[in-house]
Design brief:
Number of strands: 24
Helix content: 40-55%
Structural class: alpha+beta
Distance between the termini: 33 Å
Amino acid sequence: MRRDRSLTLAVEVGLASVTLAAVLGMSRLFAGAGWLLPLTTNAIVAHLTVTVARRRGLSLGASAAVTTISALVVATWTIYGGTTTYGIPTADTLSVMRSDLNQAWGLYQHVVAPTPVEEGFVFASAIAVWVVAYVADWAAFRLWVPFEATLPAGTLFLFTALLGAPRGRGWAVALFAGTLLGFLLLHRTTRQDGTAPWVGDRRVEGNRSVLSVGMLLGVVAVVSGTVLGPLLPGADAPGVLDPRGADGDGTRVTISPLVDIRSRLVDQSNIEVFTVQSPEPAYWRLTSLDRFDGRIWSSSGSYEQASGSLPASTEAHLRSETFDQRFRIEALAAIWLPGAYEVRAIDVDGAKVLYEPRSSTLIVDRDNETSDDLSYRVTSSSPRITAADLRGSGGAVPDTINAHYLELPADFSPAVQRLAEDLVAGAPTPYAAARALQDHLRSFTYDLAVQAGHSGDALETFLFETQRGYCEQFAGAFAAMARAIGLPARVAVGFTQGERDAIDPELFRVRGEHAHAWPEVFLAGTGWVSFEPTPGRGQPFAEDYTGVPAAQAGPADPTTVTTNPLTADTSPGATLPDTSGARPSRDDELNTAPSAGGGSSTDTLVTRLVTRPLRMVVGLIAILLVAHLALFPTALLVGHRRRRRRARTPLERVSLAWTEASEAAAMLGHRELRSDTLEERADRLTSVVPNGGDAARELTHRAQIALYSAEGADHLDAELAEEAGATIRELVRSSATLTARIRPWIDPRPTVRAWRQHHRGMQRVTAALRASRPSEAGRVRSLVRR
């Protein structure tokens, strides 16, 4: 018994819903919504693709090939559309894709959810979604095994459950469980519908009973589990095995803040991250990254409870200024607590704070997902370093510093090593060597359009080819080259000073565009000293030894700078000039990237949402049109020649003569009806082909002999039919317009109609053969070929 098509469609939708539920549950993995549209689009298109491939009768291997090609195309369009040329992937697309996947693999080993939306993570997830759709469709509709069909999406959901953040757990489980039960119920009903018919004619009523009762039980189960479950005693207690606590209480592996620094600079440039009340400007430091694996800078450390005074990371004997800052965190969306280097005391209410002395890093403990909405006060001791201090510093670097801050991967680029050595050749002091590296990099160009990453290939490309990048590339390249020549180095991440409030000169408003990274070098006798290799950026009170005046991103464009010369001799209360003007209200802030030409955010939004997709669609249509005009006529010509070679018997030759004559007459408007007899078709030919009556009657006569006479057609009948067909074709060509003669070679609709008729005819042939009527089957096959 055949299955109800409507039920099969419902099962297909139900299976796609299970995959979509698993995809939506991935919100617990990401901080932000940039992943949602690409992954949901890939999930929907993936299920449509595998469904169409199966319904068209493609084999498992052919379906896999179609799915693979579709996955690469759709994933590229939805994630890397900006790297394509009119929708066609380029070498740049493959390069960026490879770089993002390598970076994502490196980050996967260090990050803790929720992670910023990195394209490498999204692309890998999209490919996983396509694999889930293909395997699930194969199990559900080719093998008709329901539970096995849910395993791919279940594996994806389990992966999210193990690694995802606690937020959203309830609704994610409820959504996945509900769609899972709905699919299993529909699948069982459909399978039963096709294998075990109901008594009499009450099959529809039986299906409805199963669906209604099953849906009611499913709703009760889901509601009970998600609503009543958390209310049970002990629901909030930790499990017998807590995988998140396996690293111990004192160690916490944190995501590298370099992961989302570019998104802050571009997509979140106008978002106010935090405000700080301070008597002087400073770089508001989050943390420092001390590990470089060849792909990404990261850090891990043993954190201790922090309250009151904090220990210094190193001993230094330099003049310093001690001052307080009051922070209000608004949208940092991270675990760190910023502060001017080096924080020596903290006072915070409403949250537990942890401190890691080696990197001088403050974070919230595991009870808080982020530091957002926290207010706290820190006291910092800011060194006032001069060039004379650094030239006169000396002594040996502690072994503990050298052992930890000189590490480089075994496959570190020899070309980068040689460049670093050449740049510092002849430098009399470690300070002079650090300045040589800084000054070389500041000759490069600041550019937010480059891709993130510090892999060997990316580092060589940055240093030897493009020589363009933003703070992530400059700081990472400086630190790597410093280590290569024996200077202990790390990468600090945080924010520049921000914009002074127009009313309160001691209030700094820090936005996403102020996100920054800079290197720190350990110099004997001095301690950790920050340098500034990024063009257009400069740290306050550091110009004497860096030679760089204080500078940061302007209020409208992260690629512009505002500078104010601040030297070590400037008084601690010196202020930067206000460049912000009137701060826009929240309603005016658009979370969009600034245009390259400094255009408005609205123009950029229109470009991203309308112009760019429209350009891709137009380019793709143009490419498809050119391909059609080149390939379709060629395919027709090859098909016609193949058809003539295959027509060997008199019956096949007569049938082909009729087919070619009918196709030619179509230029003049000739159409055949399936219900017409041969005589009626001949009359139609005669009515549209001028002076073609005799040839049409001759062709009809030979077709009647071939199809209905006891002896069948012979070679003479075939030759006469071919001559009549050639006459009709010649008469058509002499009468048809140029447009009519060209149309069959570019219009695919007649070919598609013929293919459909052929397909239906072959089904009739199969039915005739099964009925053991080979003679009739042969005649029908000849009609099909016509």
